[in-house]
Amino acid sequence: MMLLGFFTSLFLIYIIVICVVYFSQKRMLFYPVREITVTPEHIGLDFEDVVLTTKDNVNIAAWYIPASSERGTLLFCHGNAGNISHRLDSIRIFHDLNLSVLIFDYRGYGNSKGSPTEEGTYLDAEAALDYLINVKKIHPAKVILFGRSLGSAVAAEIALRHKAGALIIESGFTSVPDLGHKYFPFLPIRLLSRYSYATASKVSKINIPKLFIHSPQDEIIPFGHGRHLYENAHPSKEFLEITGGHNEGFLISGDVYTDGLNRFISRYL
């Protein structure tokens, strides 16, 4: 009887864990920060405050940072935490590569209205691309879709839905269920997951040039995810291996990172 009670308790704990994971997925996936702490002016860059309206009538906040000798325009889909004010290091790198940048906050992040959802993040990015093409009059062939971490899945979806010049996936994952299995290997994640962000199934259908960037030292998204995306991708494609952790690899890698970006941009834009 004691053994039966032990296994019954263990089973109940397991069910509780499943319920917690199932109903906490949104909080585990999205970490929005509302406060905008700095702007591009803090690094000496002119910018325009932009308000985008999505197809489902949500107002999204964005910055447009023009480059004086513009080679192209980069649409920046950021990761799952913080907001656009935490991406000034990247904005500076892209600006120094003579790229204009449009960076936006997903719904529920920064000054953007609403609450984040998977389809909502896609609609937010679509509104940003629409702004570049129809308001700024930038030819789609001159637009680089860039996504880091969660943003890589958003950028890949937009590349699947719309025309663009190139796609850059940095620190990308194959899908949310695949990533969830890394953190909860004892749970039936594929049955529990309410989110997909299935980039691996999309890259083989995207026909524009693609650059995949990943570090073997990435402690959040395994290096194997980045390699798998690259191997699944339709040509033309390139892979850039950097060093450092998930959140600082692009900075630690220095010239390896910036030179790799520059080569890819020069080749395809």
Structure description:
- There is one protein chain.
- The chain has helices at residues 2-23, 25-29, 88-96, 118-135, 150-161, 176-183, 189-192, 223-232, 249-252, 255-268, and strands spanning 31-32, 48-53, 59-65, 72-77, 81-82, 99-104, 143-148, 166-170, 210-214, 237-241.
- The protein has an eight-stranded mixed β-sheet, with helices on both faces. A two-stranded parallel sheet has the order 1-5.
- The termini are far apart.
- By secondary structure, it is an alpha/beta fold.
- The protein has a single domain (40-268), classed as Rossmann fold (3-Layer(aba) Sandwich), CATH 3.40.50.
**Assembly form of the protein:** single chain
Mean pLDDT: 93
Q: Strand order across the biggest sheet? A: 2-3-6-4-7-8-9-10
What is the N-to-C order of secondary-structure elements (H for helix, E for strand)?
Answer: HHEEEEEHEHEHEHHEHEHH
Beta-strand content bin: 15-25%
State the low-pLDDT regions, or none. Answer: none
Number of helices: 10
What is the CATH architecture descriptor? Answer: 3-Layer(aba) Sandwich
Specify the biggest β-sheet.
Answer: 8 strands, mixed
Overall tally of structural domains: 1
What is the radius of gyration computed over CA atoms, rounded to a whole number of angstroms? 20 Å
Name of the CATH class: Alpha Beta
Class derived from helix and strand content: alpha/beta
Beginning-to-end CA distance, first to last residue: 71 Å
Overall geometry comes to globular
CATH superfamily name?
Alpha/Beta hydrolase fold, catalytic domain
The CATH topology is: Rossmann fold
The portion of residues assigned to helices is 25-40%
Number of strands: 10
